[in-house]
Amino acid sequence: MTDNRRIYLSPPHLGEREKGYVAEAFDTNWIAPFGPHVDEFERELAELTGARGAVALSSGTAAIHLALKLAGVGRGDRVFVSTLTFVASVNPVLYEGAEPVFIDSDFETWNMSVQALERALIEAEREGRLPKAAVVVNLYGQSADLDPIMALFRRYGVTVVEDAAESLGATYKGKASGTIGDYGIYSFNGNKIITTSGGGMLVGHDTGKLAKARFLATQARDPALHYEHSELGFNYRMSNVLAGIGRGQLQVLGERIAARRAVFERYEAALAHIPGISFMPEAAYGRSTRWLTTLTVNPQITGVTAVELVKALAADNIEARPVWKPMHLQPLLRQYEYYAHEPQFSVSDQLFAQGLCLPSGSSLSEADQQRVIDCVLRRLGEARMTVPGYAAQA
Question: Maximum Cα–Cα distance for the chain, whole Å?
Fold first, then answer.
């Protein structure tokens, strides 16, 4: 009998600890957007990452928004943003009426290109239009090369928001991803390496600024007996129930990372030898979580495109996806400025055209992963018959 159960890209992976914390929230009637689990989740995550403080929020997007508010971003300001990312990295810039400027990736890390960034900053200074802030994304579980990136932004006085939504648990030169920028953000969406079903965290080293973020996230209620509001606030706080889930998940973060790295290693062993297949590199400066296993497929060599592989997997009830479509190509955002890695060559365009993400969940069984591998090999085998000279390459 053929096994045709659905294999998801990155499903939630829950255990028993979470149930205990959630039960405690119900038993004590702490189910509001406050409570001991929220306080402890913030403390435990700050301790784990080495940040001086943390604020539990309703989403990673909310965390980016508040970080931009703390940076003083407002209407007409410019914000540099990694182009190869999910739209949530950019939307908060638009919330504030600011103008995103997109920066390309490099092939070595798939993250922000130092080369493109330096060119963009030089031009911005010459035009008298330096950015107020930047959102630097740590893609697919790996940190960007933050030392040269931070040095450039420091030279020009730019506040850096480190978007570590996909990279909780990764390291950069021994430091936790998300703690190198002025502010860091994490996501606990259902597909992330640990989840609260929905939620996020803002971290940083300026506890006064974080206290301001907590104030803004709670509708900016002034300290008064009645409801007093002197400035605009937001309903961005995390509930005590979700924080309980997060506390349980945080305790197994190391196990989840080990499982995802093992998934990557099995894919690499099965597919890396095939001409035209290249996996996202792991930079020597740190350790990736391999949140998602991502690779590129050169159609001129393999005879098949990344999209065709995604469709072949879908036909076998397996969820795979293309690499993020760059923000500068999105209909919503095409009017904004973009700096490619080289003036006439965009790395992120090529990664999007040739890249795909394979099922990478920490609960993925070896048998299910073999189904994925077999499907990929089968489709590549069908395609190689159409590629002149493929046998000689192999």
Answer: 79
How much is the mean pLDDT over the chain?
95
> pLDDT tens digits for 228-253?
999 999 999 999 999 999 999 999 99
Say how far apart CA 50 and CA 182 lie, in whole Å.
Answer: 13
3-state secondary structure 130-196: CCCEEEEECHHHCCCCHHHHHHHHHHCCCEEEEECCCCCCCEECCEECCCCCCEEEEECECCCCCCC
Q: Which amino acid is at 238?
A: M
Long-range pairs of 190-193 with CB within 8 A, sequence gap ≥ 24? 190/11, 190/12, 191/9, 191/10, 191/11, 191/12, 192/10, 192/165, 192/166, 192/168, 192/291, 193/141, 193/166, 193/168, 193/169, 193/253, 193/256, 193/257, 193/260, 193/289, 193/291, 193/362
CA distance 102 to 175: 26
At residue 392, does pLDDT exceed 50? Answer: no
